[in-house]
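[retry 2/3] AB hydrolase-1 domain-containing protein: previous attempt timed out, resubmitting with same input.
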Amino acid sequence: MITPSTAGLPPRRFEHTWSGPAGQWAYDRWGTGGRPIVLLHGPMFDRTMWWPVAAELADHCTVYAVDLPGHGASPPRRQYRPDVMVDELAYLLFEIGCRRAPVIVGHSTSGLLATRFGTRYPVHAIVTVGQSLDVRPMIGNVVGLPHRANVRRFLGGLGLAEVPPLYQSLAEPRHDHSLLAGYLDWLAGPPDDVQWEVDAILRRVQAAHFSIFGQLPWSGYPEWLRELIPTSSCVVYNRPGAFPHLAELPRFTADLRALL
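[retry 2/3] AB hydrolase-1 domain-containing protein: success.
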């Protein structure tokens, strides 16, 4: 289906669905040329959170904003195993004719998904947005809590109130307790053990890796990450909350264009 952005003008956003081995994916395509950028929303949100970013980038590249399984127009599943989703995403990109190594961008814990994708498939660059790759504090604060407390704590840590009013309707979270539990299940366990598994993934990253934050997770974080990913860089916008791509839209899109 084609959705015109303004009556009487050519469409900029094209809505699509794709049937993968484990289920259907919904996604938007913006733009028609240049290196692809793939945008992954965080759990409890959907692809609409990327619309302002995609609209700014559409004249410079092809943008794909997907609904992860169980979110938006992508149906739920019994399981949300990261490796299965990463492999299906690669299959989706191949099936729709994406032949250039993409810039893959993940918000919140989907930054971990984007990073994992970049260790299994060729990418031009990996970008994580608002997500520390030191997951130990998150495990202690969110993972393993009762479902309702789990969702409340997860969303409370994102700083939703800091999203500019213009974009708040695009960052309306769901409160699906079982869905969040399914997405965080692979992070369940003793924090140091889980971090050891995450570190093993990070050490396999060879592409350029950028972490974009409103504020650094902790002092010394860039040095810690560089020990694991020598190609890593941290960019800090000095804004509260985990939505720097909406709080500083012109700067964020300029940073992505610089990676093309």
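[retry 2/3] AB hydrolase-1 domain-containing protein: Residues 1-9 have pLDDT under 50 and may be disordered.
[retry 2/3] clearing retry counter.
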